[in-house]
Amino acid sequence: MNEKLADYRLCLGENEYLPLIVGGMGVDISTAELALEIARLGGVGHISDAMSPFLSDRKFGTHFQADKGKKFKIYRDELVKPEVKWGYEDVYRASLNHVRDTMDHKRGTGGVFINVMEKLNMGNPRETLKARLDGAMDGGIDGITLSAGLHKSTLPLITEHSRFRDVKIGIIVSSARALKVFLATSSRVNRLPDYVVVEGPLAGGHLGFGKDWANFNLRTLTEDVLQLLKEEELSIPVIPAGGVFTGTDAVDYLRMGASAVQVATRFTIARECGLPENVQQTYILSKEEDVEVNLSSPTGYPMRMLKSSPSLVSNIRPNCESLGYILDAKGQCAYIDAWHAAPVGDDGKKLPVTDKMCICTHFMNYDCYTCGHYVYRLKDTTVKMENGEYFLPRAEHIFNDYMTSVEHKILLPEVDRETDPASPDVSVSRKTVAAR
Question: Does 301 map to a domain?
Fold first, then answer.
């Protein structure tokens, strides 16, 4: 029997969704447009809370970053910047702007969730985390997925919020042990998670593992989490993520007891995705050997990206006064140290900093090509046009392919020759291909 993902449903309390979740890729790679389209189709789409003041400035004409830069410009040459920090009010307003505008445009039966990262310190970790959570809930978000950390102190920040028990709350973990830590914390405020995302080592961006990430696999991690919940007699939906490339992959996990899957890489080339088109083409053209896991992130987490990322050969000056999203509570960032220590060339300019990157600036400029391990398979999901570029499908096509895939086959998109005159014949583009 060829079961399809569309045969299953994800139930979160009173809400029922198609069991496909698109992860919250920042900064604004998972755009509001992408999340809203997934929700319209009946799934769950994420936006990201990464650098919400930047997004608010770009989308709504606010001046949070510029105002912050003026306020703290006297600290530009300091190695340690404890005074440079984001405050609750600006972060709250920026988060509220982003979420409220997204939710005002929501249509359909699906959900719009937000990815909230604990390690986005902003020089003021506790206060700005609360601001992002409050802004998301006040903006009407359907769900909050807690990521990038154990979140041992997160739930107590919002216990008094009127939506604390109304909004869906989930946690991303990379082990049963990490989940056990969060469950102990959540039990103290009598608020268990509504779902658990198990992110494996093939995911894109920051990984929840050490240098030994290659010793783990998503299937075993998912089994461990399912077993822990069984032992604790807890009925919490489990959602594997990282390397789920076809609908058939997804069905395999649902058969073993998962309730849905979370995906991202396939949607990086969707038209609704926030990546610039030239970067999307770079993703499609990549080969397996072009992908690496490195320690260039100043957060200390391993990070998967393309070796061609401009962020890996940059000597850009830190701009923590305007940005400073990664500054810790002491006003420190590993990139500041690396930049100041970088040698100067014969032309008097800093040589490229290769061991760390200015994650704020490069994420803002889409110069860090984070990706899942299977990014090199994207060329198998679309068609090459006569001009040498690859067709960028709509999110609806990718979503429906996940829903209906059997035997790991991928349905190639139908190219509209009126909007893409250089496209190949439709008869070619309608063929299915078997994923490698």
Answer: no
d(C-alpha 260, C-alpha 220), whole Å: 16
Report the amino acid identity of residue 302: P
Q: How far apart are CA 235 and CA 231, in angstroms?
A: 10
pTM of the entire predicted model: 0.94
Picking from 157, 203, 158, 207, the residue whose alpha carbon sits closest to that of residue 178 is 207
- Give tens-digit pLDDT for 298-327: 998 999 999 999 999 999 999 999 999 999
Same domain, yes or no, for 269 and 398? no
Q: For residue range 124-153, what is the model confidence (pLDDT) as tens digits?
A: 999 999 999 999 999 999 999 999 999 999
Q: Biggest alpha carbon distance in the chain? A: 68
CA distances from 417 to 320, 383, 391, 421 (A): 47, 13, 11, 5
In a domain, 70, yes or no: no
- Please answer whether residues 98 and 128 qualify as being in contact, where contact means their C-beta atoms are separated by less than 8 angstroms: no
Look at the chain and report how many structural domains it folds into. Answer: 2
Edge-first strand listing for the sheet containing 291-294: 205-206, 303-306, 291-294
Query: Residue 417 — pLDDT band, cuts 50, 70, 90?
Result: low
Give the mean model confidence (pLDDT) for residues 286-294.
98
| CA gap 233, 28 in Å, rounded | 38
Q: Are 317 and 290 spatial neighbours (Cβ–Cβ below 8 Å)? A: no
* 103 lies in some domain: yes
Same structural domain, 260 and 394: no
Q: Token digits for 346?
A: 């014969």
Report yes or no on 162 lying in a domain.
yes
Alpha helix ranges (H) inside 232-311: 247-255, 277-285
Q: How far apart are CA 150 and CA 165, in angstroms?
A: 20
Beta bridge partners of 239: 197
Average pLDDT over residues 212-220: 96
Q: Which domain holds residue 400?
A: 387-434
